[in-house]
Amino acid sequence: VFAIKKILVRLIISGIMSSVGMLLLGKSIVTACIPLFEVIIELAQSDFIPVLEVSGAGDSTQLRMSAIILHDIFLNNMQVIPTATHLTGKAQSLAHVLVPPTLLLCILAAWPVIGIKAILTRLAAGLVAMIAVMAFITPLTLVGLFQIGLLDATEGGPIALGANWFANWVLFTEGGGRWLIPIALGIACVAPHRFRIRNLQA
Amino acid sequence: VIFESEAPAKGVGTFLVLFIGIYIVLYIAYMAIPDDVLRLTVFPAGIVRPTLAIINMLDNSAHAVSDASTLMSRNGNLDIVRGCDGSGIALLLTSGILAFPTSLRAKVKGLMVSLLLVVFTNCLRILGLYFALAYADNWFELLHLYIIPTLMVLLAGGYFIWWASRQGIDRTSFQSSS
Asked: Given the DSSP bridges, would you call strands A73-74 and A62-69 parallel, antiparallel or unpaired?
């Protein structure tokens, strides 16, 4: 039986520890994920080959993507991006990239778990969820940012909503979807672990 | 004991499907609101002016003024855009509360407190970002992109867990196998 206060305290402690851990190790974690990101980006589209790198230091550390164009991309009748062009410049702040894995880690650590078998189940499910969080949010957002760049260049103005799946994905993740995904996966990971929670008045 | 997480995986699965489904419906509804309505009406009245008053009260030297959804001062400008309004947290809390199997009365109460929580924490967020911009701008990016969003989601999660723990699960809508 767990008191609700105890769970809230665990949430605070795991929040602090996950955040500090991510701030200390985030650059190494994201660097290690670059091959995964590149595979996901290549699977998601066929316009370019991505080249990712983590650059900068401290607060200005960014995950930067450049793109080698695989075939002529016609922006309009007048403009074309020729094959083999090397486009640069799409980037996400490392701090921004680290929010979803931090939230997932918080949920996995905060929700009580009893017994070796349950702990191992939690670890296995958590690992799969962490890979899913890393695979679905950042790489697809970078593709979206690239395509928003193309749409901007095409129209010379703000993007047209609904014009592109990945552009909409960027809006969805930036509008809160990047929190929804780790929370939903986190709940799915901790759901099998049954126990009672005592009411505050109990 | 009024809340048990002994609900079967089926119950949690139903909650998750409802939670995500409601979130997406609310997100689509939010995105359907025209930018001009948010920028010229909602943000100035709901976020910019109240925050402006607090900034000028706390920092006499700021001489902060507003222009539509932009907060301007001698220390820097903050532009409130779609997503800076706490909508992400509001959508998460609303979806979680609506998806949770409890009475309508409890849900309405939960939603009202959620709304206050979101408005209050978002106001604190804007204030924090303003003072970071004004007096510790090297912290601005980290606060804006990592620390504050994480804190707000954890606070919302903490509130949801606390609220849910006080509800009796409606076992007619979530059949328990235990």
From this structure: unpaired
What residues in B contact A197, CB-CB < 8 Å? 1, 3-5, 165
CA distance B162 to chain A (A): 7
> Taking CB atoms and an 8 Å cutoff, what residues of chain B touch A59?
138-139, 141-142
- Nearest Cα to B53, choosing from B77, B39, B71, B37? B71
Closest CA to B160 of B39, B54, B19, B56: B19
CA dihedral A96, A27, A125, A18 (to 10 degrees): -70
The CA distance from A151 to the nearest CA of chain B, in Å, is: 19
Cα B149 from chain centroid?
Answer: 10
**B142:A95 CB<8 A:** yes
Of B77 and A2, the structure prediction assigns the larger pLDDT to B77
Interface pTM, i.e. ipTM: 0.84
Produce one character per residue of A20-42: b if its CB has 16 or more CB atoms within 10 Å, e if not.
ebbbeebbebbeebbeebbebbe
Q: Quickly tell me which residue has 């009672």 as its tokens.
A: A196
Structure tokens at B95: 């979806």
Helix, strand or coil, per DSSP, at residue A115: coil
Residues of A in contact with B145 (CB under 8 A): 93, 95-96, 99
Q: Closest partner residue to A197 among B5, B83, B158, by Cβ?
A: B5
- Percentage of chain A surpassing pLDDT 70? 89
The model's pLDDT over B10-53, given as tens digits with 9 standing for 90+, comes to: 578 889 999 999 999 999 999 999 989 998 998 888 888 888 88
pLDDT in tens, B74-129: 878 888 888 888 899 999 999 999 999 889 999 999 999 999 999 999 999 999 99
Residue B60 C-alpha, separation from nearest chain A C-alpha, in angstroms: 29
pLDDT-derived band of residue A2, with 50, 70 and 90 as boundaries? Answer: low
Sign, CA dihedral A156-A162-A167-A171, equals positive
What's the pLDDT score for residue B5? 46
pLDDT at A102: 93
- pTM to 2 decimal places: 0.86
Whether the Cβ atoms of residue A75 and residue A154 lie closer than 8 Å to each other: yes
Residues B154, A12: C-beta atoms closer than 8 Å: yes
